[in-house]
Structures are given as C-alpha cells and as structure tokens.
Amino acid sequence: MHGILFLICISQVLTEIRSDHWNEWSSWSECSRTCGGGATYQERKCLRSSRSKEGCEGERFKYNTCNNEPCSQEAQDFRAQQCAAYNNATYGGSLYTWLPYTDRKSPCTLYCIPKGTRTVVRLAPKVLDGTRCKFNAFDMCISGKCWPVGCDHKLDSPLTQDLCGVCGGNNSCLNNGTKERYHWVDIGLTPCSASCGVGVQHYQYRCRDRLSGNQVPEGRCAKSQKPSEKEKTCFKRQCPPVWKIFPWQACSVNCGGGSATRAVRCMDTLPDGRQHWLHDSFCPQPKPSTVRPCNPRMCPRWYAGEWSPCSVTCGWGEQVREVLCRHEGDMFCDLNAQPVTRRNCTTIFSCTDPDDPRLVAEHDDYAGQQELSFGISHVKADIVVDATETKHLDLPKYIVSDWSPCSATCGISVRTRYVRCQVQLQYLKQMVDLPDAECTEPKPNLSEPCNLEPCFKDFKWIPQGLTPCSRSCLGGTQETHLVCVHKISNLTQPDENCIHAEKFPIERKVCNEIPCPQRWRIGGFGECSRSCGGGLMNREVKCIQQIDVSLDRVLNLPDLMCEQPAPPTSRDCNTQPCPANWAFGHWSQCSVSCGVGIELRPVVCQRITQDGDPLDVDEYHCPPTERPEAERICNMSACPELKIKELQMKFFQMNPMDKVRLFVGGEASILPGTSVLILCPVNGKDKKKIEWLKNGKPVRPNAQIAISKRGNLRIKKVWPRTDDGKYTCVIGNKKSSIKMTIIEFMHAMQETFLREQYLRGYMNNDSASHVDPYDKKVRPLQVLVSEWSPCSTTCGHGVKKRKISCELIAEDYFEVFPLKVCKKYGIQIPTVMEKCNFKPCTKWAADEWSQCLNDKCLKKDYSYKVRTVKCFNEMNSSIVHDKYCHKASKPPTQKECKNPACQPVWYTSEWTECLANCGESGYQTRMLMCVWAGGELPAGRNCEGLARPVLLRPCFNHCTHECVDESNYCKIVPVMKLCRFKNFQTKCCHSCSSKAQDPPS
Known about the structure:
By secondary structure, the protein is mainly beta.
C-alpha cells in the first residue's frame, strides 16, 4: 500500500515540474553588427538530462534587433563584406574577387559570384546575423532564417513606411501639401565625359511629387536633403594613339640664338587609364616638332675705343678711352667685365735730370705699381710698410728648379726637382714663399722617369727552333728562330734590347719542295644586282694549279679536278623587303548627275616581290603622310529643289458624298461608293513624272483607277477590300503616302454621334477659327475629349486614360489634326492619363513544404508536413500583416503525408522497488504508455492489437542498511524538497543525506 502511494506522489511531482524545466534567460549577447541593424539573442538551458526521453517545450533562444543606426555612405554592403572575405582564399586553384548575390529562395545562404564570370557559388550555408534578406527592406537573416522586421526595427512588426517616409503613417503628408510630398530621386547617370578612353559619369537627382509621380521644379524639394554628388569612372572604347606633347625646356643660351627642346611621345591609353609608349609610326603624321630656335637677340658686349695720347710729354701722365655697352631689350653688360676707361702713362723722358738715380728708382717703382694695378685682377697678400701704408703683391705662382741628374746611367731611373708657391714683392724686391693653396694653377710634377736606354749588356740572343716554311709547295725556306732574353732571369725581352748583343749564327734551309695541288682560285663578289627585294652578287671561281712562283704561272684545269663541291659563284644579297609604296587606280564617275557628289579611286599599299610582282600589304607599311587621295568632291550642275507638300491630318467621312478630295501625308476613312481624288503637291519638278504605288506595287491605270496629267490619282466609287490600302506618290528621291480605309455605315454612325454633339454646340470647349483645307471655308477648330477608360489595375497604382483629339467638324465629315495645331491657337489641352487605385497589391507567398515530420504523426504510416505562408506586398517585395491579404484564398500551411516511420509502440517505465517488508516477498510495477516510434509523443489507441507488456511481477525485498538510493527518481527528490518526508528519506537515503534537511511544511 505504501508503495502505491509512493508511485502516485512521484507521478504528481513529475507532472508539476514538466511545465517548468527551463533555467533563467541569459543576458543579451553582443550585437552582430556595429551599424545598419544587427541581431542579439538570449539563451536558456534545459534542466533535464540530455539522456532523458522527455525534452523541454518552448524555444531555447529569443532574438531582438540592435544597432539600427544607419552606416556611413562609404561603408561597404554587409553581404558584400562577407563575400570579399574570400578574396584571399583560392577557389578551384585560382584567386577571385567575389561579388555578392542574393538568391530569392534562399536569401540567408551566402552566395557569391567571381568577378568576370557568371557562376554563382555557395560559399557558406548561412550569412551573418543582421544581413538583409531583401533589397530596400528591413527584413534580416538571423540564424539562417529570414525574419520579418518592421520599419520600427522590431521583429515580426507589421509596420511599414508610407509614401511620406513615416513609419506606420497614412500618407497624410501627401494630402496637406507639406514639403514631405516632394523628395529627391535618382534618375541615373550623365553621359560619359570622354568619347573614348576613361571618363567620368555623375549621378543625377530630380525633385519628384510622391502623389502624382511627376517631376516638379527643384525649388519644391529641400536642398539640404539633396544627396551629395557622386561620380564613377566609365569606359566606352579604346582611344586611338595620340601625340603627347611635353612642355618646352629652357633655352640653351640666354642670347645670341640657341635652341629649346621638348619631348613628344606616341602614347596609347589603356582601359584602366594607364598610358603605354608606342613607336612613332602608330600616331598620325607628321610628328610635332621637338626643337625650335630661341633667344635670337644679340648678346650684350662691351666696345672700347682707342686710348688717348698720354696727358704729358714727360714724367707721369694719364690716358682715357670711351667704353660702350651694346645690347637689346632688358639685358645689360656684365659690370665686372667692363674694360677700364683710365690708366696711368709715363714717357721715357724725365722732366728733370734723367741721370738722377732717385728719379730712376721712383720711375721703376711707379712702373711696378702700374703693372700690379692693371695686370692683376685680385690681390693675394700685402705687407704693411708703416701704420698707414701698404704695398700690393704680384699674383702667386709656382717656381720650379732645374731637374736633378738621373738616378742611374741605364735602365729604369728617375730625376727630381723642387717646386714652391712664391710671390714677388715689388717693394722688397724679393720672392716670398706661400702655401700651395695660394697658387691657382696646377702644381708641376716633383719627379719623372728618365727615358734612358736599357742596359744592353744584360741581354743576349738564344736559338729557339726554326721559323715556319715560307711556302706550302714549290719550295720555301726556313731559318733559325732567335729570341732575346735577360741573361739572369732568362725572361723573354723585346728584340730591340738585344741590338748590341753578340750575333748568333743563323742556319737556313729549303722546305716543301713538292708540286702545288689543284685548288680553287676564288675572286671577290661584285656589287648586288638590286638594292632591295633580293638580288645576286657574282664572283669568278676557277680550278687551277700553280707551276711557277716567281712568274705566278698557273694551269687552268677542268672543275672536276678540284675538290667538290665547287664554291658558289653567286649568292643572294639585299634580301630585305623593298619599302612599300602607295599605288592607285583611275577616278570613278561622279556619284550624282547634279549637285555635289564624290569620285572614288582605289588606293592600296603595295610591295614589289622578288619576282617583280606587286603584293598588297597592310597600310601601316606605307608612310601615312604620302597616302594619295582616294576620294574627292565633284561639283555638277545645280539640282532643282524637289519638295512634296504634305498635309498631316486624318479625314473621316460621316455622310454619303459624291466626291472626296484628299492629300498625301495623312489617313482617310471613306464610305463605300464615294469617288476619291488624291493630290500629291510637288514643287520644283515636272508633275508628269509622278508615279503612284498601292501597298508598295505600281498602280496600273484602268477603268476604276487613273492618273491625271497633273499627277493626281482618281478612284471611281471605292469599295471595301478592293480599294483599301496605302497609296504612295513617288518623284525623284521623294515620296509621301496616305492610308485609306473603306468603312461601314455603322462605324460612321458611331463616330457621328459624338461629333454631332460638338457640331450642335452641346459640348463645345475652347475653339479657334481655322481654314478647312478641304473646301477652304473657315470653321471652328476644337479639342474633343472621350470618357475615361477603366483603371488599368484594381490595386497598386494603376492608370486610366482617355482620348484627346484636335478636330475640325463639318456636316458630312470631320478632320483630325495633330494636337500641336490646337496648341498653336492657344487651346487648352486636357490631360490624357491619371493615376487610380492606390491600394497596394498583395498576395499570399508560400515557402517550400517541409519534409514529412517524424514528430507529428497523425495515424499509423501517416504524418503531416508544414510550410510558412505570408502576405506579400507586390509593389516593394515586403512582408505585411496577414490582414492585408484575402483570408479565403490563403494557401494551407500543413497537409497530410505518408510516413512509414509513424509506427505505434508500447513504452514502459522502469520497475519500481520491491513493495514488501524486509525479508518478505512482494511485487514490482511499471507504467505503460502507447507512443510513436522514435519519440515519446502519445499515440492514443493506435497500439490496440499489439501485445501488452507485463506490468506486475513478484519480487523479494532484501533489506539493507547501506545509505543508497533505491530509485531513479531520487535525483529530483531534493530539488522538489521532498526529503522532509520519512518515506523519501528511506528510499532516497544517499540523495537526501547529501542535502540539508528542509524545514517541515
């Protein structure tokens, strides 16, 4: 009995904790993105053991959005960043630049495209949390699933932005006329700034009315909201090579005529903007000049006149001369180089006694001072004579002594000398030593080798074999070969060192006393027969045998007696191709018989082959500047002006008429039985030459149709299917057409009904007087407006239209003119189209069916599969609340499917402990439940017919005093605070003893 109560308690406890087995939620995780909308999550853990067959009901994670502030304009798209992360990884053995791709069915899978290919590659099973599922929508991918996000950045929010950009708004700004109604829109890029090569395109923005969708003046949009100007590079085609001209360099001289140079390069622009230097032949000729003359003006120069006579006839005087600077422009002579204009002079006659030694000394001293003042440009040193007077020095210079004797009498030797920097002091009448740095000229050498004769006594001649034989046949000579060597080292020396050595006896002997063999005597090649294109050079080749050396006598032999093959007597020369030249044919006849035409002639680049035949080659082989003219203008007599005067209008006949007169250039609807005259007004040519076509084929006159002398087309009593068609008049190179349709009376009555209301004045609008081209009468010209057509759509911004026409209405016909004719008369033209049905279009969008579920069995062998169905806005591809879609047409979200895994089985619990007193027999029980195989979901009565497991069995209770747990449920007894009960303390001794006793309840 106690055992049964224990089982009941355990069952109640399990029932109570089944609904509360989750741990507390964790704190929110770090946001997946720093801007642009990311995702964060909380996690909770199931307290049940992973080995337990019973799981935890509910979701383990819950999500929220975060960091919804927009990223900067320069930031890269989040999906593009994820693709770009693979740029440094090889794929298929190659490196690619990866571009983003969004798959409609799997927007949360990372698909990318290698740049330059059309291959879509799946690089990751899931994109990072926070990646947008769709373009221009807030929906984001979280854990590989696309979550709907409202404009309030909340998950599963149905709020969307209205046309005013207000989240959850009702487009109120479009009704109250505020500036919210107008916004900037991107209308595309400007044309490329360059016709070839790399250029720039700018993004264009215009102000648009959200209500009408029309473009309005830019003043209605806020300038502060206009997007900043952006640009992108563009490339249409590769530019042809052009000359790149660099700036002129400085002139080579400042005056007197020099030259300036500049670089000129033939450059080719590549698609990426880089420039490539080509050979000059690839650019148009002639090449711009690279040298030009400069600074032609004369350089400034000093011109000095003759010295005047000395100012005295005796003693010391003065001479003067005139110095002029000749120059052009703003250039002047160098003042530092200006010649002196005044100098001292003296005569050889003294004004007193010429024998006075003082005067002679003074005269010499003065002459020295004069020499120092006018002969030296810079003073190197001076000596102080007293406190107030100095004497100048002469220019320092190197003073050298005589060479010393050679250090030896023969062989290698040197000689030396002294070199000092000195200056002459005129006042002291002596030379003074100075440092070498004071002398400006190069210092002379202090030593040099003595070019003495070698020591001839140290050399001797020694024999060293014989010289080679002087001839190879008919007897030559050879003699002893002597070599000059040093007596001590025995090293070979030049022969001139042994000129005084003792002569060695020379032995001569005859050698090679044999007849000469036959050989080829080969002459030199002559000049080439051609200067290019392949010519020949010839030479004389003879088979000979020499029989006498002194007289150069030879025997001429047949060629077969000399070594074969014989040397060639000719060879090719100047094989380089001859330069190509332009060749041209005769001028063709002028392309026109009157007016300005052209004449053509063939021009080709040809090269003469070795056979003398001309061969056409590519034009770049010929000099482009010498290309003959291939086309020229020819002026024939002036052509008469030809013009067909068209009348652009539609003529519609409403009532029977005997005859109708029409003009080419428009359309006509004619009742059967009416005679038609079609006029083709032509100026400047004989109207008899007018030809008529019907549907592109020439008109053949007969009893029904004829052409008048004035070139007009007459048709008697037109009939349907016979006279319908397009009639064209042709004269010269001009032509004009009119389309004529034969209508039924019922059609004419339908068109007549509306026109009669205007004709009778019931529906008159603004009108203007206009001359009817049919009968030259003045009639009112007015605008006809039809009823509005039904809206083009039932939702999603449709349009409705109506017909507007500019017409002149008479009793029996009306004429339709282009609308510009009515505008010309100032008649107001109504709109032809309006928007309608602004309600957005929605439809149900169903995802793919899931696989047949194993944990949702319905009956044996059957389960069901599920799918997500959402309400889809067709205008912006966003998900909206289900209330916006028609509930009756909602597709099913689940359906039955066959699943062999759905099999009912009996599930049994563990056996209870033995229900008996210590040392007595008792029994054990266990629970029984019908579940689906592979899980623990109840299967109801589906186990009927299956053998039921045994639920009761006998047992013997072996009592023990060890503190052990006797049941698998003991682990949760402390959690449930049941240890305060004696029964649980006994059965769960170990678990309860490890925990503090709970206070009694």
